[in-house]
TrEMBL record:
A molecular function (GO) term: magnesium ion binding
Keywords: Magnesium, Transferase
Name of protein: LPPG:FO 2-phospho-L-lactate transferase
InterPro entries: CofD, CofD-like_dom_sf, FbiA/CofD
Enzyme class of the recorded protein, top EC level: transferase
Upper lineage: Bacteria, Pseudomonadati, Pseudomonadota, Alphaproteobacteria, Sphingomonadales
A Pfam family assignment: CofD
EC nos: 2.7.8.28
Length: 309
């Protein structure tokens, strides 16, 4: 039996780590957003893949939600002294990931191959796959014009008003083989949308040709975990963006983002209440530590299995 999780970075990584901890090794595939990826200081940075990787390896920085725990910043300090860019912080340990990945990609390896090798090296027993091996780049249209994703998210701290989003390269991108294999796995038991930002993190995955169709045609239950508690995002700009788009942050607004793609929505107890078209399950959705992540992962899987009955 197998489970497919669909995840962005910070919020997604926590549930992904919980699922990885409670499922037997090899039974979980996590398909991860690469729309946030970019070239910076000559390196290919894949923030969501790295956030999920570090979380599954138990080496993530829990306060920041990205990067490595116990990080040092000598490289950034020196780069700043030399007049280099410092708005996007690359820690010394994290830097090794970007350098080795860039070297492998330039040597002709696919992103999938690089991710498989690095996750294995860090002792991760579940499959982590990029949504695609082809470049897809998220562009945010704002009141100040179009911004590349990290310019909007990190450099401008999401301050410009969000108007629209597009995923450059998506129309030419192919689903990564490992993602397609998980979607087509006859032993697939359930699909889980992690509590990532539906607009910034999940929409790019759905923009890859074939992904939405395959999810619509699923024969197994699909559940999403809402990233909101009482209208507020646990971390990040999801509430601001959903507000600026006039969508709101209610469970209904989340369910609308996944219309036709989910059978159940897990929400916090603060948001309990029935919805049309999807079954709702209310629980404590805040993940403070690995124990919460594992508990919530078990509850999400239990909910999905109940939907299959
Ligand atoms: O807010 C920040 N996020 C940083 N992130 C996080 C990242 O840009 C976003 O959280 C995601 O793209 C959104 O999911 C990094 C991620 C990496 O993998 C490597 C370096 C960074 C650096 C920053 C940073 O300086 N500031």
């Amino acid at each position: 039996m197998s489970i497919l999780a669909i995840a962005g970075g910070v919020g997604g990584a926590k549930l992904a780590a919980g699922l990885a901890a409670v499922l037997p090794a090899g039974e979980l595939t996590i398909a991860v957003n690469t729309g946030d990826d970019f070239e910076h200081m000559g390196l290919t940075i894949c923030p969501d893949i790295d956030s999920v990787t570090y979380a599954l390896a138990g080496m993530n920085n829990r306060e920041k939600g990205w990067g490595v725990a116990g990080e040092t910043w000598a490289f950034m300090d020196m780069a700043g002294k030399l007049g280099g860019e410092t708005w996007f912080a690359l820690g010394d340990r994290d830097l090794a990931t970007h350098v080795l990945r860039t070297q492998a990609l330039r040597g002709g390896q696919s992103l999938s191959a690089v991710v498989a090798r690095m996750t294995a090296a860090l002792g991760i027993g579940q499959r982590l796959v990029p949504m695609s091996d082809d470049p897809v780049r998220t562009i945010v249209s704002t009141d100040e014009g179009d911004l590349a994703f990290q310019d909007y998210f990190v450099r401008r701290q999401c301050a410009p008003v969000f108007r629209a989003i597009r995923f450059d390269g998506a129309e030419r991108a192919q689903m990564a083989a490992g993602f397609a294999a998980a979607l087509g796995d006859p032993g697939l038991e359930a699909i889980v949308f992690c509590p990532s930002n539906p607009i910034l993190s999940i929409a790019p995955i759905l923009s890859v040709p074939g992904v939405r169709d395959a999810l619509m045609r699923r024969r197994v239950p699909a559940v999403a975990l809402s990233p909101f508690i009482a209208g507020q995002a646990i971390k990040g700009p999801a509430a601001k963006i959903m507000g600026e788009l006039g969508l709101g942050t209610t469970p209904g607004a989340v369910a609308d983002q996944y219309a036709g793609l989910i059978d159940g929505l897990m929400v916090d107890r603060a948001d309990a209440g029935a919805l049309d078209g999807v079954l709702v399950c209310a629980t404590d959705t805040l993940m403070r530590d690995p124990a919460d992540q594992a508990r919530l992962a078990r509850e999400v899987l239990g909910f999905a299995r109940k939907l299959a009955d």
